[in-house]
Amino acid sequence: MLPGLLALTSCRGEQSTFAGAGAEALAVEALFWWMLAGAVLIWLFVIGLSVYATVVHPDRHGEKSGIRLIVWGGCAFPVVTLAGLLAFGLGLMPELRAEANGPRIAVSGERFWWRIHYGTEALPGVQRSLPLEGVESANELWLPVGRRTELMLGSPDVVHSFWVPAIAGKTDMIPGRINRLVLEPTREGVFNGVCAEFCGTAHAQMGFRVRVVSPEAFEAHVAAQAAPAAVPDHPGRAAFMQNGCAACHAVRGTEAAGRLGPDLTHVGSRRTLGAGLMAMNADNLARFIASPEHEKPGAEMPGFAMLPQAEIEAIALWLEALQ
Ligand code: CUA
Question: Which residues form the Cytochrome oxidase subunit II copper A binding domain (predicted)?
Answer without folding.
Answer: 100-224
